[in-house]
Design brief:
- The model has no long low-confidence stretch (mean pLDDT about 95).
- The protein contains no helices and ten strands.
- The protein is mainly β and about 120 residues long.
- The N and C termini lie far apart (about 35 Å).
- The protein has strands at about 1-5, 10, 15-25, 30-40, 45-50, 55-60, 65-70, 75-80, 90-95, 115-120.
- A hairpin with a 6-residue loop joins strand 4 (about 30-40) and strand 5 (about 45-50).
- The protein has a six-stranded mixed β-sheet, with no helix packed on it.
- It is globular.
Length: about 120
């Protein structure tokens, strides 16, 4: 399976962006997909995850109430709606599938990693 994140860009603080994560090569029917981000010089940081079958969602405290993760089963695509963006949200955002079907916050439990998309929030 290959994952491709897209939708990043430059936005002012308070603005919104919607990221997409398209999967090819395999159609998901279950499991957990997640969004992570990596700021300059930082480790991977968990952002959000979603159970593919039920749509149950999970968020980090840093984005809860501002970001919404969703998925379109027919399109085999996951989304991340990001509102009220802050300069601290600036990072490359990645999507990946959890290997164990768990909404873990640990990046080592996810893979394969696709190409990320850069989100830059100016103050």
């Amino acid at each position: 399976v290959q994952l491709q994140a897209s939708g990043g860009g430059l936005v002012q603080a308070g603005g919104s962006l919607r990221l997409s994560c398209a999967a090819s090569g395999r159609v998901f029917s279950s499991g957990v997909m997640g969004w992570f981000r990596q700021g300059s010089g930082k480790d991977y940081e968990f952002v959000a995850a979603i159970r593919w079958g039920t749509g149950l969602t999970y968020y980090s405290d840093a984005v809860k109430g501002r970001f919404t993760v969703s998925r379109d089963k027919a399109e085999n695509t996951m989304y991340l709606q990001m509102n009220s963006l802050k300069p601290g949200d600036t990072a490359i955002h990645y999507c990946a599938r959890n290997r164990y079907g768990s909404p873990s916050t640990q990046s080592k439990e996810y893979g394969p990693w696709g190409q990320g998309t850069l989100v830059t929030v100016s103050s």
